[in-house]
Amino acid sequence: MKKRDFKKRNVDRRNAERRSLEQQNPDRQDGARPSSERSGSGQQDFGRPSAAPRSFERQGFGRRQGSRRRGADRFGRPVRRGLGHFFFLALRWATLTLVLFLIIVATWAQPIAPDDSEVAAVKKEATGLWQVGDEVPPELFTQGASLSAGSTLETVPGQSLFLSQVPVKPQKPGILTRVDNVISKSGDLRVLYAHYNALADYGKEVKNISAQMGLVFVNNTRRTVDVYYKRLGKGVNRLSDGTRLYLEDMKPLTPGETIPEFTGSQLGNIVMSHFLKPAPEEKLWGTMNPGGRVWLYEQTGPQGWAIIMGDFVFRDRQTGEVLTLDRLKAGEQIGIRSFIARSNTDLEQFFTQMTTPSAVLTSDQSTYHQRGLITEGITRKKSFTYNAANDGVQTITIGSAFDAQRDDPAKPNYDPTKFSNDAMQGADAYGFILKNQAKPRKTENNGAYGAIYEFTLTMEGPTALAIQGSVAPADNPKIADVDIYNQFITASCDEGEENIRTVRISDPKYMEYYRNPDKLRPVGSGKVLYVFPDEGTQTHVIRIGLAPNSQGPWKLALVPLKR
């Protein structure tokens, strides 16, 4: 190559570098123009880009690969924006503004949907009829006549109830209730178990622990016996891993408390709802060989409730006959023992260690002894007639206190509306344990827990059936016990499972019981359980009872469907 050609190429290269710098600095004062204007074509020059000056590359001032200066093409050269480009931008922004405006207008123009309570209020005002779940004021239950006052309940003869409710919160393993022979005259036995797990591990750190809680059936006969159940509800409100299942019966925290307490009333009503389900046939729970046992229990988490309620019969495996008192041979017995044991305990070994009377834990109730065997008043029946056009409000009181009396208003526990035979009592052969000797004690079932009321209602005209929560008196006359402000009540109508219903009667300020008691409303509110809208005569059977851990007494009210 000739020397002058080499020099010419160097000059051309330097000129190209200078033009590149001019393009990167269009505002320079020497009047240089972009390459597109110099070409006279009116279009961008897509020729080969000029290399950046070596000094920039060495000092690190060059742009990163793939980056682009705003308003430049991919080669870093300035881009000229025509009128079409600005028109497109204006059109895009106008479109977005219009869409946003339409959305805002549509949102403002849309009517605000009323909530469920507003809809219900409008609907009730329009119809003027009671509806299921409507809240009923306390004044309604004080009107009209009491159908239960002084009346006598009919009871199904021959039934028995195994009741285990004390000690309520056992703190050590043992037998809670022991009855050596539960066979009834008719063969029908109801069991009710309701206890709180207060077991604790007293190691380096005291901590509550899980437990096995329930019943063991004991076959002290010379025959093989099948254990059948007709109805059965059972459950816990806390699992062994500490998971809580039902939270709506939590008590308000007292000042200084940090650990919540649960009354177990929600669980009690869930168990009651399962118990009330219709049972078309008996179901086998287990089989006991002579001298053998069958267990019915729940794994219960620390500080949790365990509740069992069921109807049982015992059949001779060979003959199929239901065992009754008159069919037992001399010395034969079917016993039940309720218990609490640590979760890792071998129950068969536990049973062999808990055979003496001293294994029965002492009752922690000084007022009412709610354990033992009751042989009367398990199922109570009564029929009533009601005319919606003429009778106004009529009430029925159930679950009266054990010591309630209707004779003298000057004496304590006066309740003129109670049934004459509402109280339940029985016997506990292991009521007292003195020097490993069992002494009997009277069973006092305060509130008739485990009993089921069956009311046959023959009604003329559209009728509503309401239930009032308990208004049981408290030690403080200004405020009732905390449980009264948050109650659950369960009932069934006829035999349909779909007609089993639980209502909750709770004060809106219930959680402020200890902090702001003045905000609580007066007790005695209720809710509508069922409505019967037929114009003619109609008959329905209501089944209801005081669920475990619930408070009594209650009042049912028959009222005209029209408010």
UniProtKB/TrEMBL annotation:
Top-rank lineage group of the source organism: Bacteria
Keyword entries, A-Z: Membrane, Transmembrane, Transmembrane helix
Regions that span the bilayer: 86-109
Region (Disordered): 1-75
Sequence ranges of Basic and acidic residues compositional bias: 8-31
UniProt name for this protein: Uncharacterized protein
Species in which this protein is naturally found: Heliophilum fasciatum
